Amino acid sequence: MTPELLFSLCNSVAPLGWILLLVAPRWKGTRYAVLYGIIPLLFAFVYLGIIISMGGISFGDFGSLQGIKSLFANDYALVVGWVHYLAFDLFVGSWILTNGQKHNIAHLLLIPCLFFTFMLGPVGLLLYYTVRAIKTKKVLHENF
């Protein structure tokens, strides 16, 4: 498969997971597809498959911006990096949803957190921690 096709396929699946988190947070299908990890695991398999097909990855130079840039010079490596973002952001979104439900935070308050996690990863996580701290009156929690 070409890098463009892999990118398009993964980019088509990711929004489905996010839509499920946003509009059907307690639906059985959402639990299986996103919360139990089917979509993030699918991304993990794509990630691993690309790495294997590339003959492994060069860990290169993580100590400089130029070193990181050179790691992503190959289009397949660039797709691997993007799939990494898709998998982990969706995993964090799943955690936000389940943790928010555990702390009885209204879903309407979770929606902006999920949106920003989808669009800006760490910003959504920071927003969630802020919302949770305000709602529970605790900044840090045991067991997250």
Automatic annotation (TrEMBL):
<feature type="transmembrane region" description="Helical">
    <location>
        <begin position="76"/>
        <end position="97"/>
    </location>
</feature>
<keyword id="KW-0812">Transmembrane</keyword>
<feature type="transmembrane region" description="Helical">
    <location>
        <begin position="33"/>
        <end position="56"/>
    </location>
</feature>
<keyword id="KW-1133">Transmembrane helix</keyword>
<protein>
    <submittedName>
        <fullName>DUF4281 domain-containing protein</fullName>
    </submittedName>
</protein>
<keyword id="KW-0472">Membrane</keyword>
<feature type="transmembrane region" description="Helical">
    <location>
        <begin position="109"/>
        <end position="131"/>
    </location>
</feature>
<dbReference type="Pfam" id="PF14108">
    <property type="entry name" value="ABA4-like"/>
</dbReference>
<feature type="transmembrane region" description="Helical">
    <location>
        <begin position="6"/>
        <end position="24"/>
    </location>
</feature>
<dbReference type="InterPro" id="IPR025461">
    <property type="entry name" value="ABA4-like"/>
</dbReference>
